[in-house]
# Entry
Amino acid sequence: MDDSEDVPKDFIKLKSEKLSVDEVSELVISPYCGAVSLFIGTTRNNFEGKKVIHLEYEAYTSMAETEIKKICRDVRQKWPSVQHIAVHHRLGVVPVTEASVIIAVSSPHRAESLEAVMYCINTLKASVPIWKKEIYEDEYSWKENKECFWANSEK
Amino acid sequence: QVSVLYFARSAELAGLRCETLSVPRQITSLQLWEEIVKVHPRLAVIQDQVVFAVRQEYVLLGDQLLVLQPGDEIAIIPPISGG
# Structure
């Protein structure tokens, strides 16, 4: 097996089990990279004064994976030195403080991986068909990302 | 005959997650929405906030002419909230 080039890879996973920061960072580590940048999205316990019991996520899974692949492709165009990209998103019930999404990017120097991680999460929120339901004590609410251009949150 | 997938609030309003519908091969995206609302009138309340995904590409509700093949997958996409 020829490791000398460490071919850039995208690691995309949608799963209902608890996400692991260790697992996701290890996927992107590379001997050619001096930087690994991470974003972890976690569940807050409150929204507008209401107590959040947990979140529930659902996805149009096949299209979500395709859209995340598009994001990875865009990242590599904008930051060609990026080595590996990993995006893990949890589906189903996510209790408060647990992670819903973990994004990790490796690059030789830190600027590219930091910028690429920010781009990934911002673009994911604008374009990937995943939905979050916030469960409160006596009601629930389907959330709408402000990045989503077809949500009319001002109306 | 196309497959229609419902997600999030649209699945709650329609009461189901997927079904097959018969629609004309050529139809605008707004006309397609109107066909679906005939079957599930409760969906009308979210008309201003949804888009379609036709063969996994986003399509706004409007005059865009869709050329559909049998078995094509159409999804109703309420405002997303991933991440």
About this structure: The mean pLDDT of chain A is 94. The interface with chain B takes residues 41, 57-60, 62-64, 66, 89, 100-101, 121, 124-133, 142-145, 148, 150-152, 155 of chain A (CB under 8 Å).
